[in-house]
Amino acid sequence: MATSNISTLTVTTKTILETALRKIGVGLEGEVIQAADMEQAKLALNLFLGDLMTSAVKMHLITEATVFLTKGKQYYTLGPNGDHASLEANHSTTTTQAEVLGTTTVILTSLLDSVNGRSIAVGDAIGIEQTDTTMHWSLVTLIAGSTITFAAGTTAAVASGAVVFSYEAKMPKPMKILNANYLYTTGSEIPISVHARQEIFHQANKETGSQAVYVAFDPKVDDGKLWVWATSGSVIERIKLLVRIPIEIFNTADNTPHFPREWFNTLIWCTARELLTEYGTDEKTADRVERMAERKLMDMEDFDVEYAPTQFQPEEGY
After folding, report:
1. 115/51 same-domain check
2. Residue 310 to residues 303, 313, 318: CA-CA distances in angstroms?
3. Is the residue at 106 inside a domain?
4. What confidence tens digit (pLDDT) does each residue in 167-192 have?
5. Domain assignment of residue 144, yes or no
6. 232-269 burial, b if ≥16 CB within 10 A, otherwise e?
7. Whole-angstrom distance, CA of residue 259 vs CA of residue 266
8. Among candidates 76, 189, 96, 100, which has minimal Cα distance to 148?
């Protein structure tokens, strides 16, 4: 017999909620699951996701982000309403000719970033290096060959060979900053430290402008703050971050989980466990759900880790 040659599996909010409710005896034997039950189950699932974000590392939530720097800026707001910072691969190129103040077009050397393979697209945020050493940000409205049209005119002239950045969307507020690198326009990177917020608080001169030595992250409630010391002396260099992003919640019946398929059964059993106190579940069923949810969660937290080699080296003289 032939295998399916399929290794993917997709479930929706509706499937997870209905299955979780059946685990505790709701919707069995042809009983129609009421809309109120589905809403209660969705709330339980989303509350469980909130708890999950405070526990063990979820490998699928760890990703790279890029922060675009501003001269002299002490901190950057990270989030959908924050400063220019993105998760996905961003585009970097240069202009082929000079442009005057107020221009809404530039001609680029390339629409495709040869390093990450991303092409600039209509709707992207675009940053253009200006002759007054600032970066002008706008939105791409039209692409015709190598000519890019953007919404807001530049506030200074643009030189030939000026650096141009673009990205699709601002990043969500990260849960945690794991690592950081300083990214030069040449493409080379050097590691910089991630410190506690108090390290920057105790710096006597917070406006020293040269190159970032370390960063600190303050998650706040809405958008987070990334503090940078020393402040940047350049708008054409960037900071790359390795971040842990939040889990996306379920808000419609046809949402798919922000999880790999290995997590699907765990989500079902743990949602069922969250619902036990909301329904008059018998003791035997409740005990079974508690044990299964605990086992599934422990199995996933053991599985959902990154493995790396460990080396042991004797001290000199042995």
Report:
1. no
2. 18, 10, 20
3. yes
4. 999 999 999 999 999 999 888 999 99
5. yes
6. bebbbbbbbbbbbbebeebeeeebebbbeeebbbbbbb
7. 11
8. 96
pTM for the structure as a whole: 0.87
- Same domain assignment for residues 158 and 97: yes
d(CA 36, CA 42): 10
pLDDT < 70 regions, the chain: 56-57, 208, 307-312, 317-318
How far apart are the C-alpha atoms of 26 and 42, rounded to whole Å? 14
List pLDDT tens digits, range 13-28: 999 999 999 999 999 8
Label each residue of the chain as H, E or C. CCCCCCCCCCCCHHHHHHHHHHHCCCCCCCCCCCHHHHHHHHHHHHHHHHHHCCCCCCHHHEEEEEEECCCCCCEEEECCCCCCEECCCCEEEEECCCECCCCCEEEECCCECCCCCCECCCCCEEEEECCCCCEEEEEEEEEECCEEEECCCCCCCECCCCEEEEECCCCCCCCEEEEEEEECCCCCEEEEEEECHHHHHCCCCCCCEECCCEEEEECCCCCEEEEEECEECCCCCEEEEEEECCCCCCCCCCCCCCCCHHHHHHHHHHHHHHHHHHCCCCHHHHHHHHHHHHHHHHHHHHHCCCCCCCCCCCCCCC
In a shared domain, residues 102 and 163? yes
